[in-house]
Design brief:
By secondary structure, the chain is of the alpha/beta class. It has two domains: 2-84, OB fold (Dihydrolipoamide Acetyltransferase, E2P), CATH 2.40.50; 90-250, no CATH class. It is built from nine helices and eight strands. It has an eight-stranded mixed β-sheet, with helices on both faces. The longest helix is centred in the middle third of the chain and has 18 residues, at 95-112. Mean pLDDT is 80; it is low at 250-254.
Length: 254
């Protein structure tokens, strides 16, 4: 059994003397496992912190990635250099700042996505179903390991709906995600569960809403595979539909 010291951890881990991590998935950018019955992730130091995650040195991460398999176990000694709370603090969210940032986001997304990717259209139909109080399509994601990720787009959309206090859509979206959590990957399941049940979001996403700018936007490109772009697409689409209410596709149901 391997023993390691982490560099940084989500705050919840800081109250425990040691952590037994049981592996579930080994991915390119994260290793997903279970600690005390909860899904969590191991990340390299070059990634920003996620809810229920531990960052380790880059070399340690490569060693773990090369040697760990499903059901492997790692013990972490809880001497983290840094503990971070990823629970969103909505007090500092400035709607005017985000509205100005939205126009930068549009131009960026137009360049980043190919015309043949239909994730945005799926999002519009999902929002339409949520607003009509009917359950949308009965799955999350395009399938295990697929990209682009509908899960990530919903994560971005969920935070936007929460920030703008769209209570009816928020309630419907929570119910939809809860119903389908077991139909996606462990990594996506962990992120969505932490968002809807604990108000905890990736550090890189909190940074964007606290100080929206093109400089903060660029690091999203290195967040997961296409996860950063998919989160941004969710933010953009939910914002157009629910807040602006002036997109041609919204006229059928707004």
């Amino acid at each position: 059994m391997m023993k390691l010291k982490g560099l940084e951890a989500d705050l919840d881990f800081g109250t425990k003397n040691s952590l037994l991590f049981s592996v579930r998935e080994v991915n390119r950018s994260s290793i997903v496992g279970v600690i005390d019955g909860e899904l969590c992730a191991l990340l390299s130091e070059d990634r920003r912190l996620l809810p229920n995650s531990i960052r380790v040195g880059a070399r340690d991460f490569l060693v773990l990635q090369s040697n760990l398999k499903t059901d492997s176990e790692v013990v972490f000694e809880c001497e983290f250099k840094k503990l971070t709370s990823l629970q969103a603090n909505f007090v500092f969210f400035q709607k005017e700042n985000f509205h100005n940032f939205y126009f930068q986001l549009c131009g960026f997304m137009d360049l980043a996505y190919d015309d043949d990717i239909n994730l945005e259209e799926i999002l519009w139909q999902t929002i339409k179903s949520l607003m009509a109080k009917t359950m949308p399509i009965n799955y999350l994601g395009y399938g295990i390991g697929s990209t682009p990720s509908f899960d990530d787009a919903l994560l971005g959309g969920f935070l936007l709906v929460q920030l703008y206090q769209q209570s009816e859509v928020l309630s419907a979206l929570k119910a939809y995600i809860r119903k389908n959590l077991n139909k996606t990957t462990d990594a996506s399941q962990s992120q969505l569960y932490n968002a809807i049940e604990k108000q905890k979001f990736p550090q890189i996403l909190l940074d964007l809403f606290n100080a929206p700018s093109f400089q903060v936007l660029l690091p999203f490109l290195s967040h997961g595979g296409s996860s950063g772009l998919d989160i941004l697409l969710g933010i953009k689409t939910f914002y157009e539909c629910l807040i602006l209410k002036n997109n041609d596709r919204s006229k059928d149901f707004l």
